[in-house]
Specification:
9% of the residues lie in helices and 33% in strands. The protein has 94 residues and is mostly beta strands. The termini are far apart.
Length: 94
């Protein structure tokens, strides 16, 4: 499991969006595949463990199972970032 402050990498950015979700849910900012994030919070939901990220902040949304809260992202969508992931990326020549 992750720790608050830990760097993690998004390894699954595709989301299934149920038909009955609100417009607010459709407009949230989501993690991007292969991007590095910092764990802000770890929480348990009816669907399992999830994280909130320092780099991704969304407004609170009313969720039918958990009430009004900022969305979380499934912990299974991330891996701990390794040293290679954390190295600055070299810009290519134009």
């Amino acid at each position: 499991m992750f720790e608050v402050g830990q760097k993690i990498k998004c390894v699954a950015a595709e989301y299934h969006v149920p038909e009955n979700v609100s417009r607010e849910y459709l407009s949230i900012t989501r993690p991007v595949l292969d991007s590095i994030y910092t764990v802000r919070e770890i929480t348990l939901s009816p669907y399992g463990f999830g994280v909130r990220l320092e780099e991704v902040r969304n407004k609170k949304i009313l969720h039918e199972k958990v009430g009004l809260r900022e969305p979380i992202f499934g912990a299974n969508r991330f891996l701990i970032a390794n040293e290679e992931d954390l190295k600055p990326k070299k810009k290519g020549k134009k």
